[in-house]
Design brief:
disordered N terminus, Rossmann fold, 2 domains, Malate dehydrogenase, binds oxaloacetate ion, single chain, binds 1,4-dihydronicotinamide adenine dinucleotide, 11 strands, 334 residues, globular, alpha/beta, 3-stranded antiparallel beta sheet
Amino acid sequence: MFRRIATRQFSSSAANAYKVTVLGAAGGIGQPLSLLLKLNHKVTDLALYDLRLGAGVAADVSHIPTNSTVKGYGPEEDGLAKALTGADVVVIPAGVPRKPGMTRDDLFNTNASIVRDLAKAVADNAPNAAVAVISNPVNSTVPIVAEVLKSKGVYNPKKLFGVTTLDVLRSSRFLSEVAGTDPTQEVVSVVGGHSGITIVPLISQTNHKNLDKETYEALVHRIQFGGDEVVQAKAGAGSATLSMAQAGARFAGAILNGLAGEADVVEPSFVDSPLFKKEGIEFFSSKVTLGTEGVKTVHDLGELTNVETELVNTAKETLVKNIQKGIDFVKANP
Ligand SMILES: NC(=O)C1=CN([C@@H]2O[C@H](COP(=O)(O)OP(=O)(O)OC[C@H]3O[C@@H](n4cnc5c(N)ncnc54)[C@H](O)[C@@H]3O)[C@@H](O)[C@H]2O)C=CC1
Ligand SMILES: O=C([O-])CC(=O)C(=O)O
């Protein structure tokens, strides 16, 4: 009796009740990300899919007494379709991570087809879901998802996101370390893309515009190549997983806050962007206001210093190639 009442009370038809699906849920990112999503009270239905161990991770996470129902899925018995059906948000951390000496682009050959195939399943089973792509190289995997969704006639540019939140977290942390401030109070807008020189933190828009040149350059370099620090330290066992899980949970949470109609939900993300389309750059990361239909507003970059303008111009040169690579891949390998 009690159980039936509890189920009804938290049924997914209620307001603020969402199904979130994680594709790649048993991986280094997927597991802690699933844990953090289990702690988000807006998530009432959590679907965890992986090639292996989806059921195991789900059984584990499901014992936490929050309001969501957790289910695990594998490729057998149409598990991917079942995991996706009815999803409001799909988060994709499936794919291989870097080893020392590799760039994110070196992951393209393996991850492009993984992401393409998962995007096909999203198109078929959750065409209205907001899709948040974590799998690298983000600058190319996001265009891959867009091309697949377009080919299936279900592309909604307002509901596709490349997750760049880890660059935002690192910026807050690293800036606070050089400025001697509280990292929780440092908010840094990061624009461009998610790899090396395409990552452009806008330090001039913080309270620390007067850092000396050497400190500023070292800070920007550390933010751009922060991922390498973790890859080196893990020495062949992968890249950032725990900080990325926090970043992914924060971004998925922001999408849910937007869907729920909360005011002023703003996060940087790599989205289908009007900012530089005239220059042939279809996707760009900048601050985005999230709303009930996904992207509500793509913010422009605001005022930049000459140095930041240079950094953005350099980022664009690489971005345009990374984006085209993703588009060409789907054209050649539909
Ligand atoms: N956007 C960002 O800021 C960041 C992105 N990443 C990227 O995230 C990805 C995942 O990283 P980790 O979790 O560390 O890797 P991992 O190897 O620990 O986990 C990947 C998981 O994906 C699963 N998987 C592979 N193919 C799949 C498929 N077709 N369907 C479902 N699941 C599949 C694997 O079974 C594995 O459990 C990598 O590409 C990495 O470069 C990592 C850190 C930050
Ligand atoms: O560095 C990597 O390969 C993983 C990643 O994207 C990050 O940590 O920012």
